[in-house]
Amino acid sequence: MVAAPLLRAHQAARLQSVSMSRLGLNPHVIKTAARLHLLRGSGFSTSASKWQAEVLDRTRNIGIIAHIDAGKTTTTERMLYYSGFTRRIGDVDEGSTVTDFLPAERARGITIQSAAITFHWPPQTAGDGNTTPQEPQTPRSASSHTVNLIDTPGHADFTFEVMRSLRILDGAVCILDGVAGVEAQTEKVWHQASTYRIPRIVYVNKLDRDGAAFGRTVREVASRLGGWPAVCQIPWFEGGNGRFIGIADAINLQGLRWEEGDGKSVKMFNLEQLASEEPQLAQELKRARIALIELLSEHDEAMVEKFFDCEEDHLAVPANDILESLRRCLLEEQGRKIIPIFAGASFRNIGVQPLLDAVTNLLPSPPETPEPEVSIGGVKGGLRHLLSGDLLVEQGEKAASAKGKQKKKSAIQAESRHAIEKLQAAP
Ligand SMILES: Nc1nc2c(ncn2[C@@H]2O[C@H](COP(=O)(O)OP(=O)(O)OP(=O)(O)O)[C@@H](O)[C@H]2O)c(=O)[nH]1
Ligand SMILES: [Mg+2]
C-alpha cells in the first residue's frame, strides 16, 4: 500500500511511453502504423501499442499535498468511497481510514507515511474495457480513468516523505483549509512541487467551518503561491450566509447542492434555475465565469479565438473548451502560473466528485509529463536517455576523456621529473 506499487506502476507507464519514443513514434504515428499493419493482415503488436497508449492516456498519477490537518486523508477517503473502492467512509479521528493504516497514524489521527492507492474514476462499468476514442466536446471525465494516488503527510517532520513522492508524480491536488488559508507547510510543499514542475490544482476544503473565507483564501493563493487563481467553483452558502450546502460551477455554469447523507445524492441547477433559487449566487457565478474566460484569454490564444467565435459572450463558451484551455495552460511551461481553484467540505461529503472530475480533466497523463532528470557520474539527461543507453555512453566517454587527461598530466609530470633529475646529475 505504500509508494512502491505506485512507483512501479508509474515506471511501467513511463517505460511504455519511453519504448514508443525510442522507436521514434508518437501515439498518433502508432495509430497510423496500426492501420497499415492491419491492412497487411497481422495487427497484434501495433494494436497492442495503440491499446497501451490509450490506457496510458487514461492514467493519472497524482499526489495530495498540503499543510497538516488540511483534510488530505479525509478527502482521499471520500474519493475511495465514491469510486467504489470502499463500501463505507472511514474517519481520521476514529482511526478507520484506508491510507492512515499504521498503528501510530491511527492512534494520533495524523499521517506519518505517504500511502499509495489505486482506484478508478468515474467508477468502471461493464463496457469500460473497450477504450473507445473520446468524442469531441466530451470531457475526459466521461470515461473511466485509473487514478494512482499518494496521500502525503502534512507535518513538517515528515517532509522527506512528501519529497520522496513528488519525484514520481505527474500532477497534484493541493488542499487548503478554508479557515486557515495558505499555511507555511503548504507554501513549502507547493514550491517543492514547482521544482519538479508538477501541474497542480487547488481545493479549498473545510468551507463548512465557522470563519471559512473563500475569497480571502483565493487572494492568498495569488499572493503566497505566486500564480493567477482561476476560480472554477464558488461556494454555495444557503440563502447567501447560511450553512455551506454546495458549489456553483463556473465551467459548466451550474449549481450543485448536496443532500444530507453520504454525498452521493446531488441536485443540479442550471443557470436559470439557480437564478430563481439563489439570485445572488447566480450573479456571482456569472461574474466568476467572465473572470475565468478573461484570465484564460490572457494566457491561451485558442481561448481568444473561441471567445470571438462565441461573439464575445463569456457565457456562451462551451464547457469543454474551457477545460481544454485550462489544461493547456496548466501543462505548458509558461502556463504554470495559472492555478485552477475548486471548493468543498470533504468531511461533510460536499465537493469531492467534481474534484475527481477535475483530476481526470485537467491533470496530465504519464506521456504528457516532462521526463524526470537523471544524473550519472556528473552527466545529466532525461530518463529516456538513460533507458536508451545514451546517457551511459556519454558518461563512459566523459570518464575516458578525464582519464586520458589524467594520463597526459602524469606523463608531463614524469617528463619534468626526469628533466630535473638530469639537470641535478649534470656536473
Ligand atoms: N469541519 C471539517 N473538518 C474537516 C474537513 N476535512 C477534514 N476535517 C477534519 O480535519 C482533521 C484533519 O483531517 P485529515 O484528513 O487527517 O487531515 P490531513 O491533511 O490528512 O492531516 P495530516 O495527514 O496529518 O497532515 C480531522 O479531524 C478531520 O475530520 C472538512 O471539510 N470540514
Ligand atoms: Mg493525512
TrEMBL record:
Gene3D superfamilies: P-loop containing nucleotide triphosphate hydrolases (3.40.50.300). Residues 57-367 form the Tr-type G domain. GO terms for molecular function: GTP binding; GTPase activity. Residues 127-148 have a biased composition (Polar residues). It holds the Pfam family GTP_EFTU. Residues 121-148, 398-427 are annotated as: Disordered. PANTHER family: RIBOSOME-RELEASING FACTOR 2, MITOCHONDRIAL (PTHR43261:SF1), TRANSLATION ELONGATION FACTOR G-RELATED (PTHR43261). This is Ribosome-releasing factor 2.
